[in-house]
Design brief:
182 residues; alpha/beta; 6-stranded mixed sheet; 4-stranded antiparallel sheet; 3 helices; binds guanosine-5'-monophosphate; binds magnesium ion
Length: 182
């Protein structure tokens, strides 16, 4: 257990790497069970930047043929959602007629997923499902029901394993939580 300082804030270990790995094993097994016998080639949609590490860990465990497409969206500033989802980089490939598995680091307010679904529908995706590493309880209010969830967490700000505080902390192997005792 340790502490890290990123700019003005201190974070402490919240979910160690070993536990994250086990949770990803579990969620990958569920995705495999649903897609293993597919005759199409589903697309894993990596939502940059936060989803980088989770996408890499997830895809290692998948045993069906799949392709990776990326998109970059942004809505956070510091430790707060701005509520405004910006498309920083568009889809890296044509997804017309394809089944999409959205690979997200975390679903919080659900704004990002709602915007993604709008983009995917406009670009002609056949269908989309959501595979998220983390789910915060607020998401339930948006009537979002992610098909695949590795771990549920309370409504706190976390970093590590791809997630950032003003772009720092993405390289941390464990997940850290904002230390309230500062
Ligand atoms: P939503 O649009 O569902 O509110 O949030 C989605 C995005 O906001 C996530 O993909 C993630 O990039 C960012 N986000 C939400 N909660 C957190 C958090 O606790 N920590 C960090 N670092 N980013 C978060
Ligand atoms: Mg994200």
């Amino acid at each position: 257990m340790g502490r890290v300082k990123l700019y003005d804030k201190t974070f402490r270990t919240f979910i160690p790497y070993e536990k994250i790995e086990k949770a990803i094993d579990g969620v990958a097994e569920k995705v495999n069970a649903d897609f293993r016998d597919c005759t199409d080639i589903p697309i894993l949609l990596c939502v940059l930047n936060g989803s980088i590490m989770f996408t890499a860990e997830l895809m290692k465990r998948l045993d069906f043929n799949c392709e990776i497409v990326s998109i970059k969206l942004s809505s956070y500033s510091g430790t707060q959602s701005t509520g405004d989802v910006r498309q920083v980089m568009g889809l890296t490939a044509d997804i017309t007629g394809r089944r999409i598995i959205i690979v997200e680091d975390i679903v919080d307010s659900g704004n990002t997923i709602m915007e993604l679904r709008r983009i995917l529908a406009a670009k002609g995706a056949a269908s989309s499902s959501i595979c998220t590493m983390l789910l915060k309880p607020d998401a339930c209010r948006k009537d979002l029901h992610p098909e695949y969830v590795a771990m549920e967490i309370p409504n706190d700000f976390i970093v590590g394993f791809g997630l950032d505080y003003n772009e720092l902390g993405r390289n941390l192997k464990d997940i850290y939580i904002l230390d309230q005792e500062e």
